[in-house]
């Protein structure tokens, strides 16, 4: 069953054995061995494969992956050079984790009885394919005006992009460079619920960048959701580079990114409002630049581009604005990100509340929070020490680990674990014995494991020597 599931997933994504192995950072021979059934796959590696598709293991084994969001994206890249870079930057794993978190939020909402957010506003905004021969900014001003009108924003500044998007039913996630490679600025998805991920590469204090990224992804959700052929299964990431040419995902991807960039600027600073705020005669001055940046909550370069486009400034005038003294924007803003991590306090609180109320058990709570069964749950949601306590002790996990390795690597049914003891804060020692018919047991050696990750640090006794390489 596992061999068939892995082969089906690879084929659905349109990937060769070499390409699939590259995404997994493995030798292609390993993938061949899995699919042929010649080599078993351990649970940890199966979880890694499921994450490539934004799923956990049970979902991966039961899903029809032919129209899954990740599958559609992989298929679009399979014939081009972008897939190799995508794999080398570990983006399949990082973006898969984002999709997993969005799925968890959707499950939490369902279990807690949270009303499903109405997406009528999105249904009223039809996808807009790029017209053949269209030039930048590809109608972005009209599209931004259309969304503003649908949302009833008029020409006033957007006080908080985070607040606006959450009101629309879009879940927001933020990551730092340790969680998401700097090559990606943001990503968005629609299934099983609308969600946006923003990479806070320069720290959460630079909230004006966050606002632009959120508006950029809003453009993709509104107008580009049919580019992969299944609008409701839409998933897309936005490269951090100014030109998306090196990230060829599908025809006219670079133009699509240009349109989303322009949309973000026009959405945050509508030209009609810019003209009412700044006169044509002062448009090329630093004072106008600072006024636009502060009033609409945009950065220095974005404000310069807005003034250039609205008042048709020359390249020389734009260059002078770009090199003008920097705009000082207050660090206090609703769009400032204080916790740039996928599983932030709100995410954790959702899960703990469901566990407290009995909607999920401790095993699922820990899986969603990426905790081991020997780790306590975080504080919160009114949980007491007993509710937070680990399901199994570190000693139990060490026993299970060594029993598994004995069975898998040694294949000797007479060997088993007799005792586990703590050597110090970082090490556990596991005593292994051999059963003798009618004669009790004999000690054959010990296995030393690291407390945190249960990594094998050493093994004593000839019968256990092979375990030292596990």
Kindly describe this structure.
Helix content is 46%, strand content 12%. It is of the alpha+beta class and 470 residues long. It has four domains: 2-112, no CATH class; 120-322, no CATH class; 345-388, no CATH class; 394-469, Nuclear Transport Factor 2, Chain: A (Roll), CATH 3.10.450. The strands form two sheets. Strands 1-3-2-4 form a four-stranded mixed beta sheet, with helices on both faces. A four-stranded antiparallel beta sheet has the order 5-6-7-8, covered by helices on one side. Helix 15 (286-296) packs across helix 16 (300-311) and helix 18 (345-356) runs antiparallel to helix 19. It is elongated and about 100 Å long. The two termini are 26 Å apart.
């Amino acid at each position: 069953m596992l061999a068939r599931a892995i082969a089906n997933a690879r084929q659905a994504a349109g990937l060769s054995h070499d390409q699939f192995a590259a995404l997994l950072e493995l030798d292609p021979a390993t993938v061949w061995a899995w699919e042929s059934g010649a080599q078993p796959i351990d649970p940890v590696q199966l979880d890694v494969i499921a994450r490539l598709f934004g799923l956990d293991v049970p979902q991966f084994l039961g899903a029809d992956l032919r129209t899954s969001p990740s599958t559609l994206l992989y298929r679009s890249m399979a014939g081009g050079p972008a897939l190799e870079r995508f794999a080398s930057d570990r983006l399949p794993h990082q973006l898969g984790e984002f999709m997993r978190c969005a799925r968890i939020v959707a499950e939490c909402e369902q279990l807690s009885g949270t009303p499903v957010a109405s997406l009528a506003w999105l249904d009223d905004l039809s996808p807009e394919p790029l017209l053949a021969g269209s030039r930048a900014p590809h109608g972005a001003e009209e599209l931004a005006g259309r969304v503003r009108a649908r949302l009833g924003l008029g020409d006033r500044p957007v006080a908080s992009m985070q607040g606006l998007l959450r009101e629309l039913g879009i879940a927001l996630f933020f990551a730092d460079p340790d969680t998401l490679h700097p090559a990606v600025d943001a990503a968005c998805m629609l299934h099983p619920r609308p969600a946006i991920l923003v990479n806070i590469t320069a720290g959460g204090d630079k909230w004006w960048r966050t606002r632009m990224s959120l508006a950029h992804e809003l453009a993709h959700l509104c107008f580009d959701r049919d580019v992969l052929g299944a609008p409701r299964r839409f998933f897309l990431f936005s490269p951090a580079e100014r030109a998306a040419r090196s990230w060829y995902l599908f025809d006219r991807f670079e133009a699509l990114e240009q349109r989303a960039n322009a949309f973000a600027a026009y959405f945050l600073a509508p030209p009609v409002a810019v003209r009412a705020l700044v006169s044509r005669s002062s448009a090329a001055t630093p004072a106008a630049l600072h006024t636009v940046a502060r009033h609409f909550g945009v950065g220095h370069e974005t404000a310069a581009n807005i003034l250039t486009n609205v008042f048709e400034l020359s390249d020389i005038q734009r260059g002078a604005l770009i090199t003008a003294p920097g705009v000082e924007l207050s660090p206090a803003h609703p769009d400032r990100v204080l916790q740039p991590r996928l599983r932030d306090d709100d995410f954790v609180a959702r899960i703990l509340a469901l566990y407290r109320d009995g909607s999920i058990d401790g095993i699922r709570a820990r899986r969603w929070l990426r905790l081991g069964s020997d780790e306590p749950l975080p504080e919160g949601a009114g949980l007491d020490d007993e509710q937070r306590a680990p399901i199994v002790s570190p000693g139990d996990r060490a026993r299970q680990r060594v029993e598994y390795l004995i069975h898998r690597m040694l294949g000797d049914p007479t060997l088993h674990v007799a005792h586990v003891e703590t050597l110090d804060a970082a090490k556990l020692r596991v005593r292994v014995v051999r059963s003798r018919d009618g004669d009790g047991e004999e000690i054959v050696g010990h296995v030393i494991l690291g407390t945190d990750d249960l990594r094998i640090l050493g093994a004593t006794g000839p019968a256990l020597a092979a375990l030292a390489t596990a």
